[in-house]
Amino acid sequence: MRRLDIAGKRTASQIARASVLDRLLGDDDLDPDADGLDRLRDAVRRDLEALLNAHRPWRKAPAHLHQLRLSGFAYGLPDFTSGALNQPEPRELLRQDVETTIRRMEPRLTQVIVHLADEPDRLRSFLRLRIEALLRVEPIVARIAFDTVIDVTTADMALQLRNGV
Fold it and tell me: IraD/Gp25-like domain location, by residue (predicted)?
């Protein structure tokens, strides 16, 4: 039997459920003691990290094959390890690629904005981004943000859920 709030409605944490894939896989990475919204945020973080650590083919799809942009062919980011990310232009291009990729491949997030974090020492081997968006899983709408660290030598990205958003 479902628990209801005083008005007879299910609460947001009860409505927020793991995705079908997570439920089928019995994903143990998600904290079973956390409420539904926290588990959902953790799942989105994990899925975004997988998306941003995947590398799509260097070869672009032919322009007339529009549907390939939304398919597994376009999953991930282009290889950026050969770029000089200590310069403003390549950093901005990477920021745009991250934002575009999330908007295209993660339907649970809307109003996605990716910011370059100010890094005083541009010769360091990592780059920081902040990803902000609205998490929309009907009927829930919640702000969500991630602090992202990119190791520019290996192209590995690590996302951490930002608290207090």
Answer: 39-139
